[in-house]
Amino acid sequence: MRIRRMSYSSLPSVFNDGGCVCAFLSPEGRIGKSMFVMYEAWAEKLQERMCGHMCGHMSKERTCQNYNSRHPRCRHCTEFSRTMETPDLPVEIITYILTFLHAPDRKEASLVSKSWYIASQDPQFQKNLTFKFPASSSSLDVIRGLARLPRCSLVITHLDTSHASREVLAQVGRHLGPRLESLSLPRSSVTESSLLGLLPRLTALRRLDLSGLDSLFMSGAFLSREDMRRQVQAALTHLEELDLSGLRYLSDVSFNRLTGCTPHLRHLSLAGCHIAFEFDPYRGCPVGPDSSALLSLRNLHRLLLQQVGTMQSLDLSRTSITPESLKALVKVEGLCLHELRLRGCKELTDQALVTLCRYQPALRTLDISACSELTNAAVLAVASGLKDLQHLYLSRDWRVTDKGLSELVMLKDLQTLDVSECVHISGTELAKSLTGPQAKAQLASLNFRNCSYIRDLAVFSLAQTLGPRLRELDLTSCPYLTDLSVSAISTYLPALAVLRLGWCKEITDWGLLGMEQPSKEHNPDKDLEDKGPSFTRTFGNMGFFQPPPLPFSEKPQQVTEEYLGTFRKQEGASLLALRSLQELDLTACSKLTDTSITQVLRYPDLQWLSLSMVTDITDESLVSVAQHCRSLRSLHLSHCPLLSDGGVASAAPFLRRLEHLHLAACPLITNRSLAALTQHCKRLQSLDISRCKAITMRAVEHLHSQLPFLDNVHCRFVGAADPTFMP
């Protein structure tokens, strides 16, 4: 059979409304300009077939974009009914089409028909799937349904000592035991007997997260029976990742019992654990072996010696590790770490980092954030010693300056650089070094959050240098950035997926639209015109001095319809150029209005958006965002006083994928908005309506009862509610 190539433009566009999907391939960048190889017989009827499939699942109130007013079905459906002999599109072709979609879009596509569902279950789409659900009787059917999958991962919340929790764990072991690759039980109160009844069944487990499960280790009897340890060891022999972070009662004895059952660990997290590195506070003497009260450095050192051949990642963040202790750990013979996290270890010094870089040169990820004693010397040691480093986190290392950063550009594999809250960083030296002949870094993520010395010139230079490689940029709380920075970002960073500009209060509509604000005409005669007495703080009405204008107090010139017409015709660098954007933060950019929000925020793949404290936006912006950003999963609109029930009611039908919504301190929001959310946003998991005084507690309780996935409702100061009430 002859092969035909079909361009993306001949396929219908996507309607991501959560109910029906008219097709899944959009000419708006969702698949680029790829060509699809399809058999001619199916290609000729593809659009009709797809539309026909859709309309068969539509309610009477819905129509597709090809609706014919003279007939209750669309043109393509009518044509399809006349050509029933057309063969079905093969599952292989549908599977190929689905490869161009993001996971949320594939999920919507699987609801179209049986063929599309079967295609969505292809093994290439079933990798690294994690399912999260609470420990309740309603989850039992979900667990039994997951048994058809070859592999899966679970996050089970709200586990306690109840019968329902015990039954959930028993069903997991019975139906998913040999299929479960990862298990996480965050902040639960699971009993020892329930967990030990489950672990021997998990023979395929690769990752186990017991963080915060103090109830397991409080008694000190966990895994104390020899026969139980043998069963657990036989099941967990392939375990590679163990997370024990935040455990207050972890001791040498319980740690040895558990790690003795996991002989091939690659990653170990002890973040936030109470570890005695050199001194036993209970005995007032150096730490002894096998303590039943605390975990010691001696014991951790012993584990590294035993598993030196496999251990590659270690997390000791928020512990009191000393420079001497760190040196002892990194000097373990044969140890080759690829990842080390020491966030918040405040006693570490530059010399300890020098030793670390000398003995662990293969590190690819290093997190030394909030290590307040570190200076440029530590950064220079990293730049000269860790040639394979890919991710470096220096957040809140207040003594690091631009001079230290300039050496990092020599790291050829460096992709992530986080210098947030480094108050002496201006970015100028980094930008200058990146243009130098020795620059090799290929940065894909850059974080300047709360670096108040950052100016437009640095952002412009960095954007011009990094270009399409940069995927994530955080400029939150850089207060001196203006529209020039937005223009540079729009022009030089087309591949950005994450952009955070929260609290950059000088950004205006002109910057988002990519237009230059007209300068005010200078009229000397008008400036000298007598305007009456001038008052100052100290000289009354003498008129000698005028008080200086307050910073950020001037309002930008308003964008008129004439300028909007120019914007629609131009091909300049507006924020609309960032077609791949998935996360956008414009929190507290108070000079933005409906004018730019309605024209620019049109991103089909946008999943996270914050317009909180953008006080001038109205329902017009909310409805426009909902119509053009239908993949939104998290939307923040707190402290937007002009938003009303009408906007929420009009936007909700387009936000069927929404999981998190923040509407705190929006005084015009009432029970009507909750009714709209109940009807259309069935996937809502968290809702913040604090300080919405027109909402009643009865409406909140009704919302909570109607939405099955709603776990968290913040409703402080709602109506006459008790501020501590949580449904």
From TrEMBL:
GO terms for biological process: SCF-dependent proteasomal ubiquitin-dependent protein catabolic process. This is F-box and leucine rich repeat protein. Residues 83-128 form the F-box domain. Keywords: Leucine-rich repeat, Ubl conjugation pathway. InterPro entries: F-box-like_dom_sf, F-box_dom, FBXL15_LRR, Leu-rich_rpt, Leu-rich_rpt_Cys-con_subtyp, LRR_dom_sf. PANTHER family: GH16156P (PTHR13318:SF247), PARTNER OF PAIRED, ISOFORM B-RELATED (PTHR13318). It holds the Pfam family F-box-like. It comes from Scleropages formosus. The keyword Lyase does not apply. The lineage of its organism: Eukaryota, Metazoa, Chordata, Craniata, Vertebrata. The keyword Heme does not apply. One of its GO terms (cellular component) is SCF ubiquitin ligase complex.
